[in-house]
Amino acid sequence: MFEILRKTLKTGTVTTQYPDRPETAPEGFRGKPELFPDKCTYCGECVKACPPGVIWLNEDNDGKTLTLSYCGCIFCGRCEEVCPGDAIRLTQEYELASKTKNDLITIIRRKI
Known about the structure:
The chain is of the alpha+beta class. It has one domain (24-111): Alpha-Beta Plaits (2-Layer Sandwich). Helix content is 18%, strand content 22%. The protein has 3 helices and 5 strands, in the order αβαββαββ. It has a 3-stranded antiparallel beta sheet with strand order 2-3-5, with no helix packed on it. It has a two-stranded antiparallel sheet with strand order 1-4. Strand 2 (55-59) and strand 3 (63-69) form a beta hairpin. The protein is elongated, with a radius of gyration of 20 Å. 12% of the residues are buried.
């Protein structure tokens, strides 16, 4: 046991000082999807391509609504790949902690 303690003290600190100095995500990291309402055509291609089904497209008398829930998102990037208008982009953001599920929902709307 003392041998392990000695080796640990000799090695020193090897972790980062999170959250004071957050770690940057590596190149190619697939983080939080971001919606751009001005580019969205509300075609529904992202809804069809989403494996966990966390993107919904609703249409009513007032217009169309696109909803994205990060609660079940697996950050696969399929929505970004199929979007014809580049309205969805995966960011480098990985800190998605929240107090409620409603904080993990993004809604964009186009009025008729």
